[in-house]
Amino acid sequence: xxxxxxxxxxxxxxxxxxxxxxxxxxxxxxxxxxxxxxxxxxxxxxxxxxxxxxxxxxxxxxxxxxxxxxxxxxxxxxxxxxxxxxxxxxxxxxxxxxxxxxxxxxxxxxxxxxxxxxxxxxxxxxxxxxxxxxxxxxx
Length: 139
Description:
The chain has a domain at 26-122: Endonuclease, Chain A.
């Protein structure tokens, strides 16, 4: 009998942490989430507060393997300056493209942030959007 890979205490902890983060999202995360929901992502979609390995990504399009992180001022502190590059390196080693934006960028240049995300998904806006392949699972 095989054990469900998501049933362990660590995975349950990460799922619970993700739920807690969704309930307590920052203003910048709320603003970006509203914009991401309107971004045309054919064949998939973005999720918020997604457990990936030992981390919880702010936003992720799993089909395109794109992670978007929205960083507040705490990410300028010493511990985060050490931790964030390790986190990014691990996600990239798993095949993800990681985009990081400061909260202020989300508020002052939302269109620019969305263009960068779109470019990571499809290339430049001038290219035809290629559909992503992603099968949704029913719960």
